[in-house]
Amino acid sequence: MKDTYKSITKASPEVLFKDRNSKFFGYAFPVKTEEEVNLHLEDLKARHHKARHWCYAWQLGKQDFRYRANDDGEPSNSAGMPIYGQIQSFEVTNILIVVVRYFGGVKLGVGGLINAYKTAAQMALEASDILERTIDEVFVVKFDYPEMNKVMQVIKQNNLNVIDQKLELDCRIFIAVRKKDADEIYSKFDNTYKVEILKLKD
Where is the Impact N-terminal domain (predicted)? Predict the structure, then answer.
C-alpha cells in the first residue's frame, strides 16, 4: 500500500516561456481546498489584468484524487490538460499550476499551444521544492492520569509523533501514525489495560 505523496512546500518563483511574441508566465502553488485555488486565480487575474488567458490545472487529495483542468478560452485540451499532464508526470498533489498568456499577435496553432502550456508548467514545477510526505492516520489515546507511564512508554518505544495532548485527570493524547504502521500501533494501545484508542476521521 502506497502511503506517501509528493507536494510542494511553497509557491514557485515566476517562470517565463516565450514563443513567437506570446509570453507564458507559469506559477505553482501548494493548495488544500478549492477556495485556495480560487484565491490564487483571483490574485493572478488582478496582477495580470492585461493578459488574454489564465489557464490552469489542480489536483487535491493524498489517495483519492480530485482534479480539474481549464483551457480558459484556448482551443479544447490545448492548455489545461497539458498543464495537468505535468502534475501527473511529476507525481505531485495538493497543487495548483496556472499559466498566464499574453498574446503576441501570432497564432501558435494547437500543437504550439500544447507545447507552450506544457513547458511553462514543467518550468514552474522544476523551480519548486517538491517534498515526499507520509500519509498519516490520527488517533486519540484516552486514559486516566495513573496510566500515563504505560502510554508514554508505548509512545517513546515506537517514536510516535504527538500532535496534541490534554493531560488532566482524564488524559487525551493525539498521535499521527504512518498509514502502514497504523494497525500495529492501534493494537498496542488497544491491548493496554485501561487505555482506549480511537481513530479520528480525516
Answer: 20-125
Look up cell 485556495; give the residue. Answer: 36
- pLDDT of 108-140, one tens digit each? 999 999 999 999 999 999 999 999 998 899 999
What tens digit of pLDDT does each residue of 67-110 get?
999 999 999 999 999 999 999 999 999 999 999 999 999 999 99
* Listed residue (195, 194, 193, 200) closest to 177, CA to CA: 200
130-134 vs 170-178, strand pairing mode:
unpaired
What is each CA distance from 155 to 24, 151, 186, 188, in whole angstroms?
51, 6, 12, 10
89 Cβ neighbours under 8 A, 6+ residues apart: 122
Return the beta strands (E) in the chain as ranges.
4-8, 15-19, 22-30, 53-60, 66-70, 95-102, 130-134, 136-144, 161-166, 170-178, 195-199
Q: Superfamily for 4-132?
A: Impact, N-terminal domain (3.30.230.30)
Q: Report the CATH fold assignment for 135-199.
A: Alpha-Beta Plaits (3.30.70)
Give dist(CA 142, CA 197) in Å, integer.
6
Cβ-contact 173, 165 below 8 angstroms: yes
The residue whose grid cell reads 513567437 is: 20
